[in-house]
C-alpha cells in the first residue's frame, strides 16, 4: 500500500479528465496522472459513435471516439500519465485518495492538487416512483447505448422511450437503425429535455412520435416488460384521468435526467450545491477545498462536450498553478446569484483573479428574442431564444469586475428582450 | 423426468423454509428444499421491512406473542456465527395524541407479559433528544431496545447456505404441482413438481403466500391465505442517517403502519402500505400506495426529502384468516406439516418456529424417519466478503490473494468482481440473485453501470451466451439478441 506522489491527480479519463490533464501539463505541472476505473480511456464518449462533437473545439464535426482520441493524443504528447483499471474508491479530506487496480492492488495517491472529473450518471427508474412491476427490459438510455454500441447486443425489439434527454433521443434513432421499432418518446414537461437538433435529426427524420406533457404511469409484465400505460399530465404533472392508454412494448429506455457523480467529492468534504448537485466552484473551477478543482459534468450537466473540454482544460491549468504555488488564495469571493429564470449555473463564485465564463440553463423556455445578462452591467448578449435543454454562456471581464469595487454579489439571468 | 428420494421435503425457501432446513441439517437425514423462484429469497422474505421485532405487538397467549421474542433472541445470538448483517438499533412506537398513549401502555404491558426486555415509554422530548429529526408532533414513544434491523436477504441466504453446507439440497425453479399420498390418503409419500417427483415420508409446507393451496393438495382446508400487499420506498444513503432506529406510528387494524428506518446498509426505508389483493404473485406497486408511504413516513420524520428515492418495491404478506400462525403436524395425512401464515412478526419468529417444529417432528414423526445427530454439523458459515465494509488492510489482503477483488464491478456499492464470481459459485444464476448476494445494482444508479458487467460475468461463469442471462429467471431475459441479426434474418422477429 505504498504511496504514489504526483503534482496533479485527475480522477476520471472522460472528456473532462483528459482535457484537465492537458491543461495541467500546459501550465507547467511536472507529474500529472489521470486515474480511470474503466479499462479504456474516453469515458462515455467511447459509446457515442454518432457525429456532433467538436464543432467548437476543432471546427469540424467528429464522432465521440474521434473527438476523444484527439484529446488523448494531445495528452500523451504532453506527457500525461494514464492509470486505467484504477478505481478511486476512497478520498480523504486532504485530497489524497485510494485506488485499486487488479495488478497493483490497493495504493494511496498523494497529490498536491486534484481535479475531480467523474462525470455524471443517469437517473434510474426507481427515482421516478412509477408504480407497477419490475420486469426485465427497462434500461437507462446510456446503458442501452453501451450494450448496442460497445457490446453488440440488442436490449429489445419494441421500444418506448421515457424522457427526452439527449441520450434517449440518440438511442431512439440508434434502435431504428438496428431494426427495432420505436413506438414513441414521452416527455412529462411541456418542452424537450435535449437539444432541438436531436429532436429533428433523431425523431422527426425517422417519424418517431414525440409526446410532450405525457408520461408513463404504470409498468406491466412479470418476467419481461409487456407494456406501459401512458397518460397526459396536467400543469402540476399529475396524470389526467381518462387519457390513459396501454402500449405493448418489450423495452423501456429512460432518459430522465443526469446526476453529477459526487460520492468522492462528498467523502473529501467538498461542499455540494444542492441545485446543480455538483461542487460549488469559482471561476478557476476551484471547489470549497482550495487544493481540489472540478470540471465537466461532475460540476453541472453540460449540453456539449466542447464546453466540457474547454472548462476542464482551465481547471487543469489552475490545479497546476496551485500545485506549483502560483495560485493566490483570496479571503473573500463574490457570490453569483441566479435570476428568476436561471437556477442551474456555474460557477457560483468569483475569486476576482481572472475573466470568467458563466454557463447557465433557463428554467422556462423563451421562444422569442431575449438576452443573457450579468448585473450590474457586466454583460449583455442578445439571444434568439433560450431553451432548458441548451446551455447559454455569459462572460465577465476581470477589469469590469474590478471597476465595480467592493461588491458582494452579481446576478445572472436570461430575460425577454 | 427423474425421481429423487429424501427423508424430508421442505416446500418454500423463504425465511421459514431456510431456518427449518438449517435445523434439520443438525440431523443425519436427507432434506430437499424446493422453491419455484430462481433465487432466494423470493416472496415475503425478500420484500419486507427487514425488522427483527422486539415482541410487544401481539396479545399474550398467541403463537405470535410466544415465538416473536424468542426469534428475536435467536437472531441476536446467531448473526455473528452465520455472518448476516444485524444492527441493534432499537425501535420506537410513536404517539401523536393523548388517546394513543393508552395504546402505548397496552403495548408496554404486552411486552412485559411476552418477556420482552427493557421496554419503556419515553416523552416526545426525550425521543427528539435521541432522534432530532423525529416530528415535533410526537408526544410520547414506546422504546424497545431489542428491536433490530436486519439484512433479510443475507439472513435467508445464511440459513440456507449453512443448511447446504451441512448436506441439505436446494432446488430452485422447482414448483410443487401436487402432494402425493399413499393409497387411502393416510400417508404423505412426496411431491410432484415441474422437475419430476421428489419422494419423502415427511413434507413440510412453508410455501408462504401459497401455503393454503399446498394444504388443499392434502385436503386441509383449515385456513385461507389472503395476500396483503405492502409498498415501500428506498432512498439514497445520503439521507439514511435521518434516523438511527426503527420508527412506527401507533398500529391500526391493518398492521403496524408505515415505518421509517435506516436499513442494514444505511439507506432509508419507508413503508409498507397494507392493501389486500387477490393475485398472489403480482408485486406491483401502485400510485396510491406509494403516496400513502411518503405521507406516512413524513408524518413521523418530516425532513425526509422526496427526490432521494432510488427504488420502490412491493411485497405480499401471507395473511392467514385464522389471525395467528398456522403451525401443526396433521393427523391425516400422516407426515404433512404446516408452517404457514407466518405473517409479521413472521420473519422475526421464524428461527424460533423452526426449532419448535423440528423438535416436534423428531418426536411425533419418529415412526417415519429416524433423527440421528449429524456428527459433521458445522454451525457457522461466512458470507461473501463485503468489500465496502472492510478496512483498507483487509481489502489489500483480499486483492493480493485474488486480483478479482481489486476489480470494482458496482461503483455505487463498491462490489468487486471477486464477490460476483463467488455469488455465482454459491448458486446465483440471475442478475437479481447477484444483487441479493452482493448488492451489485442495489445502489443509487440501480445497475446502470454494473448491469452489463454483471451480465457478462454471469455469462462467462455459467458458460452461457449473454442473451440467455435473465433478470430473475423464467422469461426475464435481459437481451433479445445481437445487433445486426435483424438485417440478416429479415423482419421475422416479433
UniProtKB/TrEMBL annotation, chain B:
Xref: InterPro entries: BFD-like_2Fe2S-bd_dom, BFD-like_2Fe2S-bd_dom_sf, FAD-dep_OxRdtase, FAD/NAD-bd_sf, G3P_Oxidase/Oxidoreductase
Domain FAD dependent oxidoreductase: 7-360
Domain annotation BFD-like [2Fe-2S]-binding: ranges: 408-460
A Pfam family the protein falls into: Fer2_BFD
Classification via CDD domains: GlpA-like_Fer2_BFD-like (cd19946)
Organism: Acetomicrobium flavidum
Entry protein name: Glycerol-3-phosphate dehydrogenase
